[in-house]
Specification:
alpha/beta, Rossmann fold, 2 domains, seven-stranded parallel beta sheet, 14 strands, globular
Length: 427
């Protein structure tokens, strides 16, 4: 890993390269053409008057964790506005739909010094909160150089990142030293941060545990319930490449025993939906797509939930849910969301991003780990047949979620001195 000064010097010359990257991302549908200048630090709206807290959340997972914090901050500090930045189109869509009053979204500038400077000159944040693990050196050093109080919330390092950072201690100290406070997800993560840099580190728990239950539009729920009534329903949620095929294998295995089986698949990235639908149809499945405004019929095998921000709708319809990102090398997705909504939870062997949660779920009987597609099919089949077993599993998972719901209180308690100092006096 290069030293921080070398990184900053090199990135100062990177604008042409980053512009080419942005053009390629536009062609790939990974950027919003109407807002592409935000990635160059050019704001698309004016700065609100009064104290402004800047919260950066890289993508969908971090954004969902941040929503509970944003809602709490604006409720407690009525003079504060919140600027939320993310780097993906899907997270932007989520934020636009769910951010409360006095909060607004912009795309984060790419880490080019000139673009970063433009961002700061316009927004002039009074405090900076960063979520989890996306640490861009130019953005962070701009925070430090401008004297903006900063905290890393829900701090997390992968084992690979920790090992790399240990090999570049100067870089790690300089970057982590831009924070006044780090609130780590777990005791292990807290120890890793302490080993890397001289900064105040505390473990207050995982903010994902305090996230608000995923919402669902009442009219959409009313329309979908009768459409799936009488069907045996299960959900593969937040799936990645290869996991749709696993869900299809499960459907193929179980449909003889469950003739009314409806498999719902909600891909993590809806942009993949065309390819997913084609592969499923090539295998002989009848597929209805949510993005087409179509309700599933009794003739459909699979309902492809290829929309953004509607996962709460499908968790409310499916008594059994498999959590994606767990059959591969992604690290698994949020177990608390289905737990809050009463699902019996299944996942694959790879839950490293939320390993502590998965371990607690396993210890308390709140989730079942499945080694492969055959194991998943076996467990889905058993749960669909056994109402009492589903209830026991869902109740244990809900108890885990409830035990950890106070993380938001501890986070806000640690942030209160900073927010009071910038003039956002609590109501």
């Amino acid at each position: 890993m290069v030293a921080l000064p070398a990184y900053r010097m090199t990135s100062a010359l990177a604008a042409p390269v980053l512009n080419r990257l942005l053009r390629r991302r536009l062609r790939q549908g990974k950027e919003d053409p109407a807002r592409i200048d935000e990635r160059r630090g050019i704001a698309s709206r004016s700065r609100p008057d009064g104290p402004l807290v800047w919260l950066h959340a890289a993508s969908v997972g971090e954004s969902q964790s941040a929503l509970a914090l944003v809602e709490r901050l604006t409720a407690v500090y009525p003079k504060v506005s919140v600027l939320v930045t993310t780097g993906t189109v899907t997270s932007a869509q989520l934020m636009e739909a769910r951010l409360p009053a006095r909060c607004f979204h912009q795309f984060a500038p790419m880490d080019c010094p000139g673009w970063v400077a433009r961002f700061f000159e316009h927004w002039r944040p009074d405090a900076a909160l960063w979520m989890e693990s996306e640490l861009w050196p130019n953005l962070l050093t701009a925070v430090r150089d401008r004297g903006v109080p900063a905290a890393l919330i829900n701090g997390r390092l992968s084992p690979r990142s920790y090992t790399r950072w240990r090999k570049a201690p100067g870089f790690a100290r300089a970057l982590l030293g831009c924070f006044d406070l780090i609130l780590a997800q777990s005791d292990e993560q807290a120890e890793w941060f302490r080993a890397l840099g001289p900064v105040a580190v505390e473990c207050v728990g995982n903010l994902k545990f305090s996230a608000l239950p995923l919402s669902a539009d009442a009219s959409d729920l009313s329309a979908l319930r009768p459409a799936v009534a009488g069907r045996t329903v299960w959900l593969a949620a937040s799936t990645h490449e290869g996991e749709e095929a696993i869900a299809a294998d499960v459907h193929e295995t179980l449909r003889a025993a469950h003739p009314s089986l409806l498999t719902m698949i909600a891909p993590r990235h809806p942009a993949r939906a065309d390819a997913i639908a084609t592969r499923l149809r090539d295998r002989g499945f009848r597929v209805a797509r949510r993005s087409r405004g179509i309700l599933p019929t009794t003739e459909d095998d699979i309902y492809l939930a290829d929309t953004m921000g509607e996962l709460g709708l499908f968790y409310r319809l499916a008594p059994v849910a498999m959590i994606g990102g767990s059959f591969g090398d992604v690290g698994g997705h949020n177990l608390m969301e289905p737990a809050q909504l009463g699902c019996a939870i299944l996942h694959g062997p790879d839950m490293k991003k939320t390993q502590a949660v998965a371990d607690e779920m396993a210890q308390t009987g709140g989730a079942i780990q499945c080694a492969d597609a055959a194991s998943l099919a076996d467990n889905v089949g058993k749960l669909l047949q056994d109402t009492e077993r589903r209830h026991v599993l869902a109740t244990a998972a809900k108890a885990v979620a409830d035990r950890h719901s106070g993380v938001i209180d501890r986070v806000c308690e640690r942030l209160a001195p900073t927010l009071d100092r910038i003039g956002g006096t609590a109501s």
